[in-house]
Automatic annotation (TrEMBL):
The keyword DNA-binding applies. Pfam families: DUF5753, HTH_31. This is DNA-binding protein. Keywords: DNA-binding. SUPFAM superfamilies: lambda repressor-like DNA-binding domains. It comes from Streptomyces scopuliridis RB72. GO terms for molecular function: DNA binding. Residues 107-286 form the DUF5753 domain.
Length: 294
């Protein structure tokens, strides 16, 4: 499903609200309850529950808490994630948040989602993922994309990367499982020194308990996922519907359906199965790093 904001009259459906509504819908159906029962708890009309589940309206925290209690959702982390998602949606509608000043609308939408996600699974073919990039690597990567009179843009890109990477640390860090094709580690972005630093940083990240990195080696031969890179963002428990993000040249695609989400999760699983183990991936990272330093 292509990324969009759908508007009908005074109602606006956003990616964030649809995701939150879909989570609550899944919880309601798992509890075996209908919309009328949910409406009773909210002292509202059934139409309100329908609008919430379709992402047509912003969500109030008391409504989310009441519905989670009704549906038997007791995991505090899951409930907190839904509340943060609701706040983010409200802020996005008001254009709040550090990411609201970004030039690219598509990038704003993705970072807004990533900022409240609990887990990200990503598949990358040609470059080191943004969450793992060093400033030197980011600068070298950005140079061919800009004109000489836009040189200040590079530092803005570096700052965005730095802010995103802050989520890898702290009390409740973002859980990241990345599968990266070997080509991304061998592409000489910025020269041997910059790549050496990047590989050393990648090696350091593997020590974080919330970062899981696997490399898909050249010797794997044919592999799934040749269609392009993608990110899977998770906001609740393992059984909830995820959102898939794919960024192409001049366009962004969000995949939000339950069947589509499951298909990408299966594809990611096949990529993991075809890749090296985390231990062997570290050995390959170190081996490529030594080759570049010789």
């Amino acid at each position: 499903m292509t990324q969009r904001r759908v508007s009908t009259g005074n109602r606006v459906s956003t990616v964030l609200a649809r995701q939150l509504g879909g989570q609550l819908l899944a919880f309601r159906e798992a509890a075996g309850l209908n919309q009328s029962r949910a409406a009773e708890v909210l002292s509202a009309q059934t139409a309100k529950v329908a609008k919430m589940e379709r992402g047509w309206v912003p969500f109030r925290d008391p409504d989310i808490i009441a519905l989670c209690k009704l549906y038997g959702v007791e995991d505090a982390e899951v409930v907190d994630g839904l509340l943060r998602l609701a706040k983010l949606d409200r802020d996005r509608r008001k254009a709040k948040g550090w990411w609201s000043a970004l030039d690219q609308g598509n990038l704003r939408e993705y970072i807004a989602m990533e900022d409240v996600a609990l887990k990200v699974r990503l598949w990358q073919l040609s470059v080191i993922p943004g969450l793992f990039q060093t400033p030197e690597y980011t600068r070298a990567l950005a140079v061919p994309e800009i004109s000489p009179d836009e040189i200040d843009h590079i530092e803005r890109v570096v700052d965005v990367r730095r802010r995103r990477q802050a989520r890898l640390y702290g009390d409740h860090p973002l859980q990241v499982h990345a599968v990266i094709w070997e080509a991304a580690l061998r592409q000489m972005i910025g020269g041997p020194r910059a790549m050496g630093q990047q590989l050393a940083h990648l090696r350091e990240l593997t020590e974080l308990p919330n970062v899981h990195i696997q490399l898909l080696p050249f010797r794997a031969g044919g592999y799934p996922g040749v269609g392009g890179p993608f990110n899977i963002l998770s906001f609740a428990d393992e059984g909830a519907v995820d959102v898939i993000h794919m960024d192409g040249l001049g366009s962004t695609v969000w995949v939000e359906g339950e069947q589509e989400s499951a298909a990408y999760a299966q594809l990611f699983g096949r990529l993991c199965a075809a890749s090296l183990s985390p231990y062997d991936s570290v050995q390959l990272i170190e081996g490529i790093g030594k080759e570049m330093s010789e």
